[in-house]
């Protein structure tokens, strides 16, 4: 079987809800990410065999195959196809897996994977405004439980015995690390300026500098009275897009491109849909076993910060060194534009590995409904 490598990975700065990116149509935002790949690699887009594109809220401005319309908005040839993928928060990580699998299988040679979400324009939950998404049979299987991520995050905190103080300490750490990453220029090579009516948008804007557990202690719980989950230890509602280019090492050489990372192993798992967000634990265990690696072999982790309790439960079960888990901060600090987050995390991970000479990196994400993707990538030696 052929190898698959990522030769370029880009993302927009992440905009907060009703912030700098709210005025940009998600199709146009996605098109900008596509064209940034072309600008950086110099390839002719006619060579792209397919575009796998993640998006969760596929209604309104993001309906009717947003990936395809992004290709057209980018001015790419009409011959370039695209499909839009929905695996909840892991949509663009699933899109990336599908791009990788197509290349590894020999079905395609050059594939773009990415995603977009404008949560300002297509609000969270917009697809559920009419109808019952779960159906009576699924609900009956779980005694009529109303599946809810916030409730799941609260249940995780209770099951693992976390205190609110611990959740808020982790949230504060995310902001601290994101601030350090921005100040050091760690994101400059992976992001690009997005033109807006207010001028170029260049820096993730969800960051709240100086966040402390003491400040977060004043926020009201959202799941229940005296609960532990609140806006400050949850991922932010955001806007953003990201894209990566996948090919084989041989095709990369032909095109004069230098791979960043090789896709080593990838898995997807199902998990308890009531807790809903624990999937990254078995997904990580499964991908490590498939790769023949241990937790100590991994030099950097991106574990999507849906809620503090999710990441802390993962840490408690896997025993990873917190110093290398979300070393640049995460979604609590800079945001979680649902369908874009999978390739945003991979963009962060791949660039961080290259910048610091890290051999193995692992990415995993919890997903609505109780599923999770996990992938291991390996740095390609120059």
Automatic annotation (TrEMBL):
Pfam entry (one): Thiolase_N
Highest taxon listed in the record's lineage: Bacteria
Similarity comment: Belongs to the thiolase-like superfamily. Thiolase family.
UniProtKB keywords: Acyltransferase, Transferase
Hydrolase listed as a keyword: no
Catalytic residues, chain numbering: 89, 336, 366
Protein name per Swiss-Prot or TrEMBL: Acetyl-CoA acetyltransferase
């Amino acid at each position: 079987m052929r190898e698959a490598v990522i030769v370029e990975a880009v993302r927009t700065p992440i905009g907060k809800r009703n912030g700098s990116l709210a005025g940009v149509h998600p199709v146009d935002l996605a098109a900008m990410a596509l064209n940034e790949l072309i600008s950086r690699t110099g390839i002719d887009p006619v060579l792209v065999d397919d575009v796998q594109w993640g998006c969760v809220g596929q209604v309104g401005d993001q309906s009717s195959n947003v990936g395809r319309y992004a290709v057209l908005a980018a001015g790419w040839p009409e011959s370039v196809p695209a499909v839009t993928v929905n695996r909840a928060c892991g949509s663009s990580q699933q899109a990336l897996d599908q791009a990788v699998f197509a290349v590894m299988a020999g079905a395609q040679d050059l594939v773009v994977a990415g995603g977009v979400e404008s949560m300002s324009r297509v609000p969270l939950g917009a697809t559920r405004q009419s109808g019952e998404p779960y159906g009576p049979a699924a609900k009956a299987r779980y005694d009529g439980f109303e599946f809810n991520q916030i409730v799941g995050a609260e249940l995780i905190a209770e099951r693992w015995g976390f205190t609110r103080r611990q959740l808020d300490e982790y949230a504060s750490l995310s902001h601290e690390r994101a601030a350090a990453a921005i100040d050091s220029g760690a994101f400059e090579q992976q992001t690009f300026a997005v033109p807006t009516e207010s001028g170029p948008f260049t820096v993730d804007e969800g960051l709240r500098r100086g966040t402390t557990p003491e400040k977060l202690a004043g926020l009201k719980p959202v799941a229940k009275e005296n609960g532990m989950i609140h806006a400050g230890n949850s991922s932010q509602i955001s806007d953003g897009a990201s894209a990566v280019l996948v090919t084989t090492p041989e095709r990369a050489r032909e095109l004069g491109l230098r791979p960043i990372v090789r896709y080593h192993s990838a898995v997807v798992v199902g998990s308890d849909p009531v807790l809903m967000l624990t999937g990254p634990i078995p997904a990580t265990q499964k991908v490590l076993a498939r790769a023949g690696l241990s937790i100590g072999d991994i030099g950097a982790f991106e574990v999507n910060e849906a809620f503090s309790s999710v990441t802390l439960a993962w840490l408690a079960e896997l025993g990873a060194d917190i110093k290398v888990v979300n070393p640049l901060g995460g979604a609590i600090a800079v945001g979680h534009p649902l369908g874009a987050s999978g390739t945003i995390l991979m963009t962060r991970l791949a660039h961080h590995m290259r910048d610091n000479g890290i051999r193995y990196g692992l990415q995993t994400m919890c997903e609505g409904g109780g599923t999770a993707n996990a992938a291991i990538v390996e740095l390609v030696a120059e």
